[in-house]
Amino acid sequence: MRKATHLQFDQGTLVLREWTQAGVESVFGEEHPWKWDQRADAFRCEAWHYAAIQARLTLRAWEVEDWASAWPVVDYPENHLPPPRPQQHAAIDHWLPQRRGVVVMPTGTGKTEVALHLMARLPVATLIVSPVRDLMYQWHRRIQQGLGYDAGVIGDNSFDVRPVSVTTYDSAAIHAATLGNRFQLLIFDECHHLPGEFRRDAARMSLAPWRLGLTATPERSDGRQADLSWLIGPTVYNLPLAEVSGTVLADYEVFRIPVYLNAQEQTRYDQLSNTVRDYVYQRKQEDPLFRWSELCAESALDPSARAAVAAFRQKQSIEDRASEKLRVLEDLFRLHRGTPMIVFTGSNAMAFEISRRFLLPCLLSHCGKKERAEILGGLQDGSYPAVIANQVLDEGVDMPAVKVAVVVGGSASTKQARQRLGRILRRTGDAIAVLYEVICSDTNEAIKSRRRRKNDAYERTRHRRS
After folding, report:
1. Given this model, what pLDDT does residue 448 score?
2. What percent helix, strand, coil does the chain show, rounded to 5?
3. CA neighbours within 13 Å on the CB side: how many for 18?
4. pLDDT above 80 for 215
5. What structural domains does the chain harbor?
6. Whole-number pLDDT of residue 396
7. Rounded to the nearest 5 degrees, what angle is found at the Cα of 15, between the Cα atoms of 159 and 172?
């Protein structure tokens, strides 16, 4: 007599009891995910295999008693969603056949609307995962407005679990062991955050067979974006920026403005460069394979290495806070007087310096929810002519209609470059968006600028002298 299959969810894993190794291999094949757990006297695997396991059992017509999933019923009271635009409709149609996969669309093209339309079509227990608290509450508002549903909030000192809930990546990973069987659909906003060593638990420890990833920039510096294919699914739709620029999104221009260190800054910069160069040269004489990562490791024990690392950080500070950048920024404020602006910096120190110099509000990661809402509201109603930010506005958060941005510092990441450009591309009439990139020439900052401009968003960059 054939044994019944008992699937159980246990602390982010699936448990299969009363099976032999031969039986497991017969049903699931030799490359099965199951591992024998001697402590539990059962086979165990990570929860994300649930959909494949169910498909295999169905294929073999095996009797199943599923004790694993506990998905409540969902009923959306209203639907006030606007009809999807053609690109949104295409994204929906590409995701629906498999109900798994990543949708890549530029900022401002309506990734949130794609998700909300899918939620309306598939009224099942859903967890929306976002990178920061601001975005979590933004999703809560959008679900309330579009579907008339008061979603649960998991995170920010709240643990209100409902059939449809919103959370952050960190909270989702922390609670995955207990929530992993509660949701049938997972939506990962800005899903390039998911492959991190800890955050991936939000996907690994969940049974959810249906998974949607949303991002404008799937690339990661560590290359782990490849893991999205099994954490969520393959990229099912990729909308190029060029296809929507000037139609769905505003047309735009990018201007690169080179500046130079003054005499005092240049002298100090050269001294610091020599300190770093001399140490690296000496170590390479001893070990030709010496790498920068080893220098950072040695700095904990070796005073010379520590001095070299400190010199490198000071060099970065000089590049980031060059006095000539403030002069150019003042000219740009005059040029765009009366037009709302965002200034993106490369450090909190530079953000504070610009904020004090021009008496403008500064948005940083430690700013509270009320403070952020007040500052963005002031930018929208004209109370503040500009807002200074380091990284907190790089992605996700809904912005007022701003058409001018100035980048005075940042990383070499092409992802960050596209995110910052995306902040000003929401279409308002025929207004053209303008991004200025102010760069310290003859420094490492110029190298970072060249690297981050290696993407289609910066193809039309114009060069201007300050």
Report:
1. 82
2. 40, 20, 40
3. 8
4. yes
5. 5-66 (3.40.1170.30), 86-239 (3.40.50.300), 252-260+322-463 (3.40.50.300), 263-320 (no CATH)
6. 60
7. 25
Place of tokens 């981050």: 452
Determine how β-strand 5-10 pairs with β-strand 13-17. Answer: antiparallel
Give Cα separations from 245 to 12, 403, 413, 422 (angstroms).
43, 14, 21, 11
Q: What percent of the chain shows pLDDT beyond 90?
A: 54
Average pLDDT over residues 358-373: 84
Between CA 147 and CA 189 the distance in angstroms is 18
Is-contact 396 372, C-beta < 8 A? no
Helices (H), 321-463: 323-335, 348-358, 369-381, 414-422, 444-452
Read off the amino acid at residue 48: W
Q: What's phi and psi for 249, nearest 5 deg?
A: -105, 160
Give the chain's largest Cα–Cα span.
88
CA proximity to 418, closest of 199, 242, 193, 237: 242
pLDDT in tens, 291-345: 878 888 888 888 888 998 999 999 989 988 999 999 999 999 999 999 999 999 9
Alpha helices in 382-423 (DSSP H): 414-422
